[in-house]
Amino acid sequence: MAATLAMIGGALILISSIFSITIFMIYGNLGWFTAWGCPCGMMWRWGGPLMAWPLGGMMIFTSTIGIVSGIMLITGGLMVRTNPSDATVWGVIILVFSIIGFIGGGGFFVGSLMGLIGGIIAIMANQSIK
């Protein structure tokens, strides 16, 4: 159960991060041009499109964090399933990357919540066995 929740949560985080980085790559710079194709905004003389770089860098950074978190949640879920003796260690890793995954959108926030629940279950189930 814990492994399944972590893997589904990781997949949701991965999908949302890839979705957000794809949307930014497609539509990221189109907002600077008006309907006539003239980049005539109020701030055009003071940087215009260059002012979009901090926002673009932030989107790419948070999406990259989301992709790494999603991959780690999927890996953690697989490791909990294949090696139950190390479920506590992988449960903690799942918890940490679920919290970090909130930065990248959290898999529509449902993915990170599923990862948090899966990590807690992995830790508690292994503690009750010992």
Fill in the keyword field for this structure.
70% helix; single chain; 130 residues
SSE blueprint:
Layout: H1 2-27, H2 53-82, H3 87-101, H4 110-129
Helix pairs in contact: 1-2, 1-4, 2-3, 3-4
Describe the structure.
- By secondary structure, the chain is an all-alpha fold.
- The protein has one domain (2-25, 53-129).
- It has four helices and no strands.
- Helix 1 runs antiparallel to helix 2.
- The model is unreliable at 31-37 (pLDDT under 50).
What is the overall pLDDT average? 82
Alpha carbon gyration radius: 19 Å
Elements, N to C (H/E)? HHHH
Instruction: Give a count of the beta strands, DSSP E runs of length 2 or more.
Output: 0
Please state roughly what percent of the residues sit in beta strands, choosing from under 5%, 5-15%, 15-25%, 25-35%, 35-45% or over 45%.
under 5%
- The secondary structure category is mainly alpha
Helix count, per DSSP? Answer: 4
Shape: elongated
Taking the sheet with the most strands, its summary is: none
Assign a percent range to the helix content: over 70%
Which stretches are poorly predicted, pLDDT < 50 over at least 5 residues? 31-37
Distance between the termini: 18 Å
In short:
The chain has 130 residues and is mostly helical.
